[in-house]
């Protein structure tokens, strides 16, 4: 297993009930998309908070990441809902 | 020339326009985005990713510089607690050409609204909130 810190922003903070969590990833979680699916499969509150896959973006180590990007070597992933203030 | 500020505190749009005016270019354009809320909202909380916010604003400004001939860009985005009616965003552009300054300013505002990693929560008097 690989240790990973997940940071949540925006409504994800409230929907998931925390702003970060430490997880140990199983070996089949290799990409950002895999991570999203795995988090959903863990049940609530993640399943509902992350239900719509089009409604999130991600960053690995402070850099924007695409869904297919590898988590190899990643120690921190941030998950974001759609942006916007005005 | 690009000046990016990500800050909790308020800012003076007039002072920023004056800074751009010091460059003595034909056009100085500015946009100030304010927080408009429903009546029941006590304040707004703006969440942000500090590192990505700055880098994304910088990337947007550099894209604008590549698209138009601009002398300077100032971008200010606030985060944290903001009261209704207060300013949250400033976009300022100085350029030799009026049309380019106006087009760049409008483009910058649109890009920031959809790309910059800031999130807004409207907080009611009872402490509950709703994300937008």
Please characterize this protein's 3D structure:
The complex is a heterodimer of chains A (86) and B (132). Chain A is of the alpha+beta class and 86 residues long. Chain A has one domain: Beta-grasp domain (Ubiquitin-like (UB roll), Roll). Chain A contains 3 helices and 5 strands; from the N terminus they run βαβααβββ. Chain A has helices at 11-16, 32-41, 46-49, and strands at residues 2-8, 20-25, 57-60, 63-65, 76-80. Chain A has a 5-stranded mixed beta sheet. The longest helix of chain A has 10 residues, at 32-41. With 132 residues, chain B is an alpha+beta fold. Chain B has a single domain, classed as Aldehyde Oxidoreductase, domain 3 (Alpha-Beta Complex). Chain B has helices at 13-21, 50-67, 98-115, and strands spanning 2-7, 27-34, 41-48, 72-78, 80-82, 87-95, 118-124, 129-131. Chain B has a 4-stranded mixed beta sheet, with helices on both faces. A 4-stranded antiparallel beta sheet of chain B has the order 5-3-7-8. At the A-B interface, helix 1 of A face strand 3, helix 2, helix 3 and strand 7 of B.
